[in-house]
Amino acid sequence: MSNNWKDSTVITAEGTNVEVVEDFCYLGSYLSRTGNCDKECMIRIGKAASVFGILVNIWKSKNISLAVKIRLHESLVISTLLYGAESWPLSVTQMKKLEAAYHKFQRRLLGITWRDKVRNRHQKENWFKETGRYN
Questions:
Q1: Higher confidence at residue 126 or residue 30?
Q2: Domains: count for the chain
Q3: Is 9 part of any domain?
Q4: With CB atoms 3.0 to 4.6 Å apart as the test, which of 80, 96, 106, 132 could cross-link to 48 if both were Cys?
Q5: In whole angstroms, what is the distance from residue 77 CA to residue 70 CA?
Q6: CA pair distance 49, 77, nearest whole angstrom
Q7: Average pLDDT, the chain
Q8: Mean pLDDT, residues 107-122 taken together
Q9: Contact between residue 43 and residue 37 where contact means Cβ atoms under 8 Å apart
Q10: Each residue of 19-48: pLDDT tens digit?
Q11: What's the average model confidence in pLDDT over 51-55?
Q12: E strand or H helix that includes residue 31
């Protein structure tokens, strides 16, 4: 849905006109003039992937229990992925992208590769066995 409406109101602050932009970053979140959150979703997925990648030595460690890894995953990766999500007007496509990223992180944490051909349903069952709750 595009917004073709043009507002001719000029906003001034301390005698200076405020520039109208398509999107901008405020407190770590991208806000769009049209209210679309495509850019924010992609940035959040990228930041969560970065956090997940930084912690790769923890995910591979045999000395750290899976329960601790799951707690770290939830507190660091998922919180980064969903930061500010309560205010996003998500489309079905954006929701699917977030879910795909979420499942990708879970699979990597559980050591499931695409060659294992594990369905998301079975992945959720494994997650439930480890955490005692569904994702």
A1: 30
A2: 1
A3: no
A4: 80
A5: 10
A6: 8
A7: 82
A8: 74
A9: no
A10: 877 887 777 777 777 777 888 899 999 999
A11: 95
A12: strand 29-32
Share of the chain above pLDDT 70, in %: 79
Q: Which residues, 6 or more positions from 80, have their beta carbon under 8 angstroms from its beta carbon?
A: 44, 47, 48, 51
Q: What are the residues facing 17 on neighbouring strands?
A: 12
Residue 13 located in a structural domain:
no
Query: How do 12-13 and 29-32 pair as beta strands?
Result: unpaired
The first and second tokens of residue 78, run together, are 């998922």
Token pair of 128 as six digits:
């439930």
Backbone angles phi, psi at 11, to 5 degrees: -105, 130
**Do residues 101 and 73 make contact, with C-beta atoms less than 8 angstroms apart?**
no
In a domain, 6, yes or no: no
Q: What is the pTM of this model?
A: 0.72
As separate numbers, helices (DSSP H) first and strands (DSSP E) second, the chain gives 6, 4
Task: Answer for the pair 114, 86: CB distance below 8 angstroms, yes or no.
Answer: no
Q: Which residue has the tokens 């995953």?
A: 73
pLDDT of residue 17: 85
CA dist 130 and 124 (Å) reads 10
Q: Which residues contact 7 (CB under 8 A, 6 or more apart)?
A: 20
